[in-house]
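Table S2 (text version). Query chain:
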Amino acid sequence: MPQLNPNPWLFIMITSWLAFSLIIQPKLLSFTPTNAPSEKASAGTKTPTWLWPWT
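Corresponding structure-token output:
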């Protein structure tokens, strides 16, 4: 069964994993988010409860 032959696929998987973890991931993590989370507590808005007619 050719699916069990790890000869070409193991090298491709390891190469792509290393390329992602060593090259692509640090470049993506260096970007600063546009909407940074704020430290202040958010003002809680209380929504009115739904009044069911049958309860």
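Notes on Table S2: The chain has a mean pLDDT of 79. The helical segments are 7-29.
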